[in-house]
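Lab notebook, entry 289. We have the chain sequence and a SMILES string for flavin-adenine dinucleotide, and the next step in the workflow is to get a structural model of the bound complex before anyone spends time on docking refinements. Request logged below.

Task: model protein plus flavin-adenine dinucleotide, output structure tokens.
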Amino acid sequence: MKDFDYFAPETLDEALSLLSQHKEEAKIIAGGQSMLVVMRQGLLAPESVVDIKGVSALDYITYDEREGLKIGALTTHRAIEKSSLIQKHFRVLSEMERNLATIQTRNWGTIGGNLCHGDPAGDPAPVLIALGAKLKLKSLSGERVVAMEGFSRDILEVDLEPDEMLVEIQVPTPRPHTGVAHEKLMVMQGDAGIVGAAVSITLKPGDGVCEDARVVVSNAASVPLRVKEAEKRLIGKGINDHLLTEAGEIASAEADPPSDVHASSEYRKEMVKVFVKRAAIKAMERAKE
Ligand SMILES: Cc1cc2nc3c(=O)[nH]c(=O)nc-3n(C[C@H](O)[C@H](O)[C@H](O)COP(=O)(O)OP(=O)(O)OC[C@H]3O[C@@H](n4cnc5c(N)ncnc54)[C@H](O)[C@@H]3O)c2cc1C
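Result returned:
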């Protein structure tokens, strides 16, 4: 690893000032669970590393019905998994975290680091897209709020300027009669998903017709893949097994997954069918609860 200057700010202002001074030469490190891997592989060799783990003001989880859920970027995966607020109001997030990596990685890795790493196999992004989440980004010159959908630009590339930080994840309260579920194919518990699917379904009260749907797949393209055609197939209809199979087939046809040591592209495409349908069945059951 190449030598670098190391900074450990304790406040957000300090961290933003350092990023503003060092711009392209600097990289943030939070838990280092992904960052150290890419540095050791030589894919990144920053002149300066800004370690934000000590910026404790960015470690929080709050919820109220009107404002929705707010998660500070430095909140660890384990804190999200264990949060009673999240278990009560957003159980899909807690379930997704329980299947993410090992306890050691979840104890130290942060939700902000996961999203900013931009790995198309990442689990939180598809779930947050299905939930309609937004991200608050901040630099010394101001802040902006962007949709989680669209934040990933390409493999390991996200919509962040060099002097910007992700500070907060904002998740709106789901409408009544909404169910959200996440399913991923793992060889062993906690493995990165060979593919994953997050589905949100909102039913009209009474007649069970699908009023709204979101279908998002991970590790099936260079970014988390929202499959709007599959959603259209469900919206406005009384959902049945045949429609859910069709939604899975549409997602599979749109997917362009990689082939690697874990699975071939063809196998992943087959699994997209299975996992979209599986997540949709669970989302439906939850929407009816
Ligand atoms: C063994 C192992 C198994 C894993 N399994 C899974 C899995 O099953 N599913 C899954 O989704 N992930 C998995 N991961 C990835 C893991 O979730 C991420 O590595 C971790 O969440 C990254 O968080 P971090 O705080 O360590 O980020 P870091 O590694 O410190 O940073 C990652 C990237 O984000 C940037 N960054 C960090 N915080 C911010 C911020 N606030 N603002 C702007 N940029 C920022 C950094 O500059 C860097 O580019 C696994 C990782 C390991 C090591």
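Notes for the group: Residues 116 and 257 are 21 Å apart (CA to CA). Worth checking against the assay data. The longest helix spans residues 265-288.
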